[in-house]
Structure formats: C-alpha cells, structure tokens
Amino acid sequence: MNDEKLMTLLHEFKQLGATSMGGVTRCVYDDNWSLAQKKYVAIANDYGLYCFCDKMGTIYAATSDHISHKPVILTGSHMDTVVNGGWLDGIYGVVSSVLAVGQLFQKFGTPKIPLCAVSFSEEEGSRFDATFTGSRYLTHQLDDAVFNLKDRTGATFNQERQNRVTELRQVTPIGIPDFKIRSYIELHIEQGNTLDQSPANIAVVTDIVGQKRLLITTKGISNHAGTTQMSGRVDAMRKAVDLMTKIYSSLELMKGLRFTIGKIIAFPNVANVIPEKVDIALDIRHIDQNVLDQAFEQVTQIINAVGATYRLTTNVVATPMDYQLQQQVIRSTKQEKLVGERLFSGAGHDAQVIANSKAPSVMIFVPSQNGVSHVPQENTAEFDLLAGQRVLKRVLYDLAYCS
Amino acid sequence: MNDEKLMTLLHEFKQLGATSMGGVTRCVYDDNWSLAQKKYVAIANDYGLYCFCDKMGTIYAATSDHISHKPVILTGSHMDTVVNGGWLDGIYGVVSSVLAVGQLFQKFGTPKIPLCAVSFSEEEGSRFDATFTGSRYLTHQLDDAVFNLKDRTGATFNQERQNRVTELRQVTPIGIPDFKIRSYIELHIEQGNTLDQSPANIAVVTDIVGQKRLLITTKGISNHAGTTQMSGRVDAMRKAVDLMTKIYSSLELMKGLRFTIGKIIAFPNVANVIPEKVDIALDIRHIDQNVLDQAFEQVTQIINAVGATYRLTTNVVATPMDYQLQQQVIRSTKQEKLVGERLFSGAGHDAQVIANSKAPSVMIFVPSQNGVSHVPQENTAEFDLLAGQRVLKRVLYDLAYCS
C-alpha cells in the first residue's frame, strides 16, 4: 500500500478551491474544478490507466481501453464541492479509487473484469439548481432541461460545460461511457455522527434513504396587528404553527424517520402585520419506502385538515444497496482487521442514482469527526482515511482479479 | 358647514404622493410632503389663521398670533403616510381640523380660549426608523438620537429636516411651540373594523392600547437534515414551534388581548439544514396596563421555560383618554344627531404621545370600510367623513367659545 500518496494528494486537491475560511469551494465547471479534473487525468496516466472524458466532464480511468459495452467494475465519487465545504466530501472517494485501481493495475496487470475509476463532474447542485448530473448522465437519467439552467451570474450550464470539456480535450480523449456497470463501489465520508460515536472504523451502507421534500403554504388575510379584532382574524402564522405542531407530533412517533423543517418564510414578515401567507419546507427521509409513503400520507392529511396546500419539490425513492456487494465489503473489512458495521445513509449519493439504474451498487463509509460535513471543520482521522482506502482496494481486487 | 371643501381638499392632497397602485406615498421630508405642508399653510392663511413652522417642520395654524405660554386647544393629526398607504390616514384629521378652526374663526372671531390646528411632520416612521417625531418634539419626548438616523438612501434625518424647514420658511415664520396644551382633539379613521360592523358613525376613543413588542430567539445546532440522528438534534425550529404554540395557548385565554406573531426568520433557512437560530417578533397590546404586564410576564416565563431569549423592542404604556373630553365628544355627537359609541384604539396615535405628556387628549374615530388601512383600498364613506368633521367642529366650538 502507498499510504503517503493518498494523504499527499488529498492535501494537494484541498488547495484547488481553498477558501480564506479554511474550506474548499470547487463547484462544477469553475477554474479549480477544471484544474482538479486535469490533475486527476495526470494521476491516472501515471499508472498507465486509460482515460477519457464524457460530455459532462466526468473522467473515467480504466484498466483497458476497450471497455465499450463490457460489464465493468466502476468505483469513484464526485469532484465538486459545496460552497466553502470540507476537504473530503467527494474527493476522498475520487482519489482513493483512482489510486486503488492504478496500484492494482500496476501490480497485478489487466484484471479478469475491467476496473474503471470515475471522477464525476457534479453531485452537490451548489452552482446550478440540479444535483447528480454526472451520474445521472452516465445512467441515462438526466433531464435535458439541465442544460438551460443558469448560475447566479447568468452563465448557462451548457456553455460552461462545453468550455470545460473543450479544455479537458487537451489532456484526454472525449468518449461516450457506453459500458455496462457490473458493480459500483463508492467510498465516502459518512457526514453524520454514527460511526464517530461507534468503535467501528468502517461502515457498509445497507440503504440510502428515500426522501420527500414538501413546500407547504398556509394562507391568511393580512391586516393591522393592533386594530384587527382577534375574533375576525385569518392568521397564516397561527395556521402554520398549528400545522407544524401537528406534523411534529405525528412524525415523532414514526421510528427511524428523519424529518426537518429547515425553512420558513412569512409574508409580509412585518412585526405589526398579520401574515397573509407562510411557506414551510418539510424534509422527510426513511430507508423503508413504505414508511416514507405512510409518513407522507399522514402529513398530507394534516395539511388538508388545516386547509393548507403543498407542492412536492423532491421525491427520491429509498434505495437498498446490493446485498452481495455488502457481504464483500464486510469480508474485506475483516480481512483488513478493521471493525465494521452496517448503517444506512441519510444523505443522497451517486451510488443511489446508479443503483436506481439497476446496477448493483454499494458504499463504504469512514467516520466524520463530530458528524459535521459541508463546512470547513469537516474532517476524518488519517487512520480512518487509510483504512477506508485499504478496504476499497481489497474489495476491488477480489471482485476484479479473483472472481 | 362647508362640506364640499373637505372632500375637494382630501382629493387634492391625495394627488400629492399618488402612486401608480392607487395609494399615496408621502413620507416625511420628501417632495410631496413639502408641497403638502405648503398647501396646508395656504389653506390656513386663507382663513386668516396665524401660522408658524417648528424646527421639525410641523405647521401650527392658530386663532391668535400670541399663543406663547398660553393654554390652547390643539387639534390635528399627521401629514405623512406609510409607503403606498391610503388617502385618509392622518390627512383626514389634518384637513378637517384646519377647516374647522378656520371656519369657526371666520364666523365667530377670536375664541375665549385660543384654537390651534396642527399638521404634524411625522408619525408613521416609514422613512426613518423613528415614529411620532412631530408630537414627541412638541411634548419634549424626542430623543436627540433621531437626528442621526438615515433613510435607505443614506440621507440623514437632520439634513433632510433642515432643508425642508428652510423651504417652509419661504411661506411661514419659524417658531417655537411653547404654548401649553389645554386639550388635544384628534379626528382619525379607525383603521380597524369595529365601527364598520356597527350602526354607529362616530366613536369616541376611551383608551389607546399599551404595546410591547418582543424579539424572541431560539438557538440550535445547525447540521445536515439527512445524516443527523433525531435523538442528537438541537433544532431551533422545533423549539420555536413549541414556544409559539405555548404562547398562543397562553395568550388566547386573556380577554381583550391582541397579539400577533407577524415575523419569523430562520437561520440559515435552508430546507435540508437543521436551523441554528430562529427569530420571532411577538406584538402584544391591551388597554389595561396591568393585563398587558401580566401577559408579558406569562410570555417571559414561557420563553425562559423553553430556554429561549428575548429583547423588548417596543414598550408603550396603555393610555386612557381624558374623561371630560370623551363626554364632550359624546354630547356633540348627539347634538349632530349621529350615532356614537365608545371604543379603544388598537393602534398608536399622536394623541397617545400627547396624553402621556399629561395634556388632556381625546380622539374621534370614523369608520374604515372593511377595516383596512395602510393600503390603497383604505376608504371611508363621504357621509362618515363629513359627520366626523361636524362633530369635531362642534366640540371645538363648545370648548373654545362656550366655556
């Protein structure tokens, strides 16, 4: 194993988008993103891997230049970050996987089943209002409307994409990823606090939660807070508080459900005016789609009962990870003499998108210190980072060379 | 009575600040405000009243040019409006009172007790973050910090004030309002819906509510909505909803209390992030200061119980109107063969400021159609507008000529 290389590269990638606040901003198609994808190509080339770039700017680094239509073992994560995010989210899996594939290729030559590392162009949705565009393109789940999206400066997704792909063409060929995914394995930091509070170093992800997000609206009649009698009021805030209380009471009884009211906007939002409208965003997640659907049903009944309305703004189905791949990760963890456990992911990942395209997928998590992510404080102990990469490498070896 | 004059003038003043949305914007010291105060001087001069302007730009129009240190009967309201407000708030009392004083003076000559109409410079606080600056200056309740306030464009209160007073000096002398207020009578639209739903045309105001406004803050720990376990969360929104529910439950039991949560701001206010802070503005009003204090005490207990904090941003004491002046208004209403009733004001007024300086004060209300005010739809039937002015005129006649 070449432990130093991983840490050295992670620190080098941290500089590509380093912010004055100690975080990293490397959004899709920005300058640092472009430098980072070029650096990825250089690393892969050093190991003699065969690289190409797809039309989204995702880079593939394979153990063979003939992977068209073949079933390959794909492994990787995403190159982009949120604004002022952490130094590990995405890039940890990107660097670990290209090193693993490169080192296995260098040491053991061409595997029985082709290995392909991948650095997805985008996952976070922090520049344009679309997420997972890299893995959605790969698995034919991308809506063409994405290409017309604009960022805050008015730059379009499509123009920025074209410019960067043209740039990347200078360092690697452009190609169409028309291989079949036999397995997808993604190594990632947990971003929550379960592993950090557990003796385990490694988790195999059993499920990625289904998620529904509702924008709920209560309506009232705006009027003067001092001159309007209490009895005649139609107060959108009063309704919203009633609604939220009922939602909390109802959902708090549902085991395993994670739900959050993170956003509220009142209109006109003035201290001495009765609100005419209150918008509330409710996010609900569960690993069991039936429970999620049941929670959603309860919420919509409450919404109807108080005379509010809603719009479903996010709807992602609960996604179990492939059972055989989970067993493979557990075996490899034991072989590496590490403590592993099973847990589900409360956050969405490229592995969810890929699993939803019927490709067997699995994720390997390492602990996030204090469970924080998407902030400059995001961190994982070096021991855990190296442990995760060792497990990934062993899984890939077993799948590609021993099957 | 000269009924046409009142309606003609109200329509003329409506043009000074008319908005494309059908409302009126005439904020203190803006161009239309200046035109309107000059127009007021011209009206007063036509009746032979003695005008002067104080350092705030408030115009006084008296039946004598020697009112220094004398006890006078003061009557008027404010010249400014809120942004895109109605055509009657303030200006109805301003025009009615100068016409009443002017017509009485013209017909009956110098009264036993001097009458003085007033057009206060400012009451609404819609340009600078300070209210009642006209009446507060007159009654020595103005904080000098007001002069340093800036509007949204960065213009200072003091510079704007100076410029406009210099302009007004072209049409009327500048003076110091060092008279004693024997009585203050203010005619105003109700702005609520009590009179509109009653057979009465006229109300005498018995009390102006005391008001407390609290900015309440709950604190949490911001984290990912998907990866953070429910059990470990510190959710500022969960606390805020709990707090608001308890406040509603507690205050809804208090008879006569008007309370409103009109404003809420969550941080960071993102759908998939647990809020770290929620700010809530609570406005509570009651005519009985003891009940208001009791409500405040209950709210602070709830705030402490849920571990929130608060800041008191508004604190105005409940103000009873002078009983003898109320009786005078009731007599005059009967003499005019109009139906009157007593009610309290849920909104603050210059009469509250003046009453708090120990000057006997009273208000006369006319109905607001549908109870709406501070919007372009603000309206009062012509019959009611004229009725209110007749009552005011009779009150002034009895107090000034017959006592």
Automatic annotation (TrEMBL), chains A, B:
<dbReference type="Pfam" id="PF07687">
    <property type="entry name" value="M20_dimer"/>
</dbReference>
<dbReference type="Pfam" id="PF01546">
    <property type="entry name" value="Peptidase_M20"/>
</dbReference>
<dbReference type="InterPro" id="IPR010158">
    <property type="entry name" value="Amidase_Cbmase"/>
</dbReference>
<dbReference type="GO" id="GO:0016787">
    <property type="term" value="F:hydrolase activity"/>
</dbReference>
<dbReference type="InterPro" id="IPR011650">
    <property type="entry name" value="Peptidase_M20_dimer"/>
</dbReference>
<feature type="domain" description="Peptidase M20 dimerisation">
    <location>
        <begin position="211"/>
        <end position="308"/>
    </location>
</feature>
<comment type="similarity">
    <text>Belongs to the peptidase M20 family.</text>
</comment>
<dbReference type="InterPro" id="IPR002933">
    <property type="entry name" value="Peptidase_M20"/>
</dbReference>
<dbReference type="InterPro" id="IPR036264">
    <property type="entry name" value="Bact_exopeptidase_dim_dom"/>
</dbReference>
<protein>
    <submittedName>
        <fullName>Zn-dependent hydrolase</fullName>
    </submittedName>
</protein>
<keyword id="KW-0378">Hydrolase</keyword>
